[in-house]
Amino acid sequence: MAVEGANATLSAPYANKTEKRDTLVATEKIYQRAWAEAHLFESDARITADIPFGSIAPASLRKQEPKFMGTMAYPYMNGVLHAEHSFTLSKVEFATGYARMQSRQALFPMGFHCTGMAIKACADKRVPTGSCARSKCLARTLRDTITRRKRTTCQRPHNQTPKIDVTRFRSKKGKMARLVKAKYQSQIMLSIGIPTDQIHLFADPYHWVRTFPALDGSKVYFMAATLRPKTIYGQTFCFIGPGIVYRIFQLSDSEYGLITEQGARNMAFQGIFAEWGVVEKNADILGADVVGTVVNAPLSVHERIRILPMETVEASNGTGVVTSVPSDSPDDYATVVDLAKKADYYPIKKEWAARDIIPIIKTPRYGSLIAPSPVQSMKINSPKDTKLPEAKEEAYKEGFYHRTMVYGEFKGRLVSEAKELVKQGLITSITLNQRAS
């Protein structure tokens, strides 16, 4: 009785100091009850019993039943919540409420997670020392998965700073190393147009074969663009931009073309694709991934040439695929010389760029090798040299009407006469090859 009396005596002075809190809690209960009775925050989402799986196309279902899902995972179960977490939560709650006002099927589940290095430490502690191989395997898988993802959602204490070994050399990656970043398989599939709700089907290997049938016997063309067809005999290499994302489009049932997206849109109205004005993209591929590929060059003195990187190629110019004639183009000559000098940097094999340059056109001033002279006289040592446009202009200005062909079917004729003849010969050659295949 003495204890009860003491408590009553102590509680009396503080009885009125919780009035505001008690009012707030009482109000909370009232509206929680009202929300529950009105089912305000409940979503009558469709289930597979209502709409059987596969009975309607995913796009049509999303249009018929627009949906929204937002969540905020409980920040960390091994930590303490604070006011800023409610601020983050309010953003998701507002977005969900707005989606409901739009008559969308809105879901706002609360998630829980506790990931990061703290869990890895727990996993390490639970690795048994006995002969329980299954537990060891599970713990090792968990540890490797967390390490591979290299991320943690648990915050570092504010007074803790990362330790850096100042005696250890560190440097940023070079340009080529940054070109390609690892992607998950699901990300790659999304990038080529596979809907999210169909990705799980590819767990079945037979689904792969049905979706991506074998293309043996099909031809892939690197669709190079040129304004100077008379130099086509001197194709020694083919250039692509290593950092450019190219698209592979279907030209016919057994033919595909590699080209930039802008180039494909332009060529869609030139009778290149199966249907006028329509391009069907099959895949994306980074330019760096096709470097070293051997291709057939029509009318070239070299029957087979290699794809090499050229950092000055622009995706918005032409098709993004450039024919390389180093005997006639200062740009091409400077790039080839640079590739041979810095093969390890690009990276390529040095012998790919070390190839004989074939004379195609002869001029009174520069002889049969036009490009090397202005490049060497202006002491241009890089394909990014600001003097290259001047060298290019000087080489081309040598005289369209005074140049003479020294190779090919039209040897001895003026370039001005041979230009259209070579163009027609190129078209005829490609047409015959297509018919033969």
Rg from alpha-carbon coordinates:
34 Å
CATH top level assignment of the domain at 219-436? Alpha Beta
Shape: elongated
How do the strands line up in the largest sheet? 5-8-7-9
Individual helix count: 15
Identify the CATH architecture of the domain at 219-436. Answer: Alpha-Beta Complex
Total strands? 14
Task: Provide the residue-averaged pLDDT.
Answer: 78
As residue ranges, the low-confidence spans are 1-12, 129-135, 149-158, 173-178
Task: Tell me the name of the CATH homologous superfamily of the domain at 219-436.
Answer: Valyl/Leucyl/Isoleucyl-tRNA synthetase, editing domain
**How would a textbook summarize the main sheet?**
4 strands, mixed
Along the chain, the helix and strand elements come as: HHHEEHEEHHHHHEEEEHEEEEHHEHHEH
What fraction, in percent, of the residue positions are helical? 25-40%
